[in-house]
Amino acid sequence: MKSIDAVLVGDSMGNVEYGYDNTLPVTYEQILDRVKVVSSTLEKIPVIADMPFLSYGISLESDICNCGNMLKIGGANGVKIEGGREKKELIRRLTDLGIAVQGHIGLKPQHFNREGGYKIAGKNEKETEELVQDALELEKAGIFSLILECVTEEAAKIITENTKVSTIGIGSGKYCDGQISVVNDLLGLSEYIPSFTKTYVQLDSIIEKALKQWTEDIITGKFPEKAFHRKDEMKK
Questions:
Q1: Which of 147, 207, 217, 232 could staple 104 via S-S, CB 3.0–4.6 A?
Q2: Which of 30, 12, 113, 112 is nearest to 70 (CA)?
Q3: 225 in a domain, yes or no?
Q4: Catalytic residue of the set 86, 127, 149, 153
């Protein structure tokens, strides 16, 4: 069985773990801390650090330091930067320094205020042409792969056919080279599950059932069955 190709430590943790309404409050330190844990745990699977809002785009010097420290301190293998052709100079500089960069176009959660909410991208010919141009410019800048979030299936197919880098879809249909999902959504641990995501197990109900059983066993005296003594255990 083929393994997962890579793990993205994403700013979606703001929604599924911290309970934020959007990803903007997620801090650089929060991402860096999780990247450290994931990178030290996984073996032979690349780890990509999602650069959170305001951790890049301020100045070239701070952008490079923040992205570089995800590798140097966090142990990541690359970073993901949200945005189209306006990010090409930053991406080119990062890749020149040896920092692998994953692009992200389509629905851009960090830009939802400017774009008036979360909207599907590539709904018409003009939008599709803009997305293709973004993809080509980012490819020239040196990205190693490109996330297409909530892009129409038709637009995703055109982008995939016109670029050499791997396209990774999330809510963008079947014509991408690969797929990415939020693990909490896959495991049934999110309060809100997007319509484009398939939930493979309802861990929330399994966990709830286990906790209820544990509580009942304590109340009825079934748990613990006998006293546990550390000294006795150590003598074995």
A1: 147
A2: 30
A3: no
A4: 149
The boundaries of the domain holding residue 112 are: 7-201
| Count of domains observed in the chain | 1
Beta-carbon count within 10 A of 119 CB: 13
Pair 182, 12: CB distance under 8 Å: yes
Report yes or no: 188 and 201 within 8 Å, Cβ to Cβ. yes
Strand blocks (E) in 32-152: 47-50, 78-82, 101-106, 145-149
Prediction pTM value: 0.93
Domain CATH for 73: 3.20.20.60
The CA distances from residue 131 to 82, 100, 101, 158, 167, in Å, are 13, 21, 18, 10, 12
In a domain, 221, yes or no: no
Per-10-residue mean pLDDT of the chain, 236 residues long, equals 87 96 97 98 95 97 98 98 98 98 98 95 98 98 98 98 98 98 96 92 97 96 79 59
Beta bridge partners of 121: 151
Please tell me the distance from the alpha carbon of residue 108 to that of residue 104, in angstroms, as a whole number.
7
Instruction: State residue 43's pLDDT score.
Output: 86
- Is 149 tagged catalytic? yes
40: in domain: yes
The pLDDT value recorded for residue 5 is 95
Tens digit of pLDDT for each residue in 56-103?
A: 999 999 999 999 999 999 999 999 999 999 999 999 999 999 999 999
Look at residue 94 and tell me if it is in a domain: yes
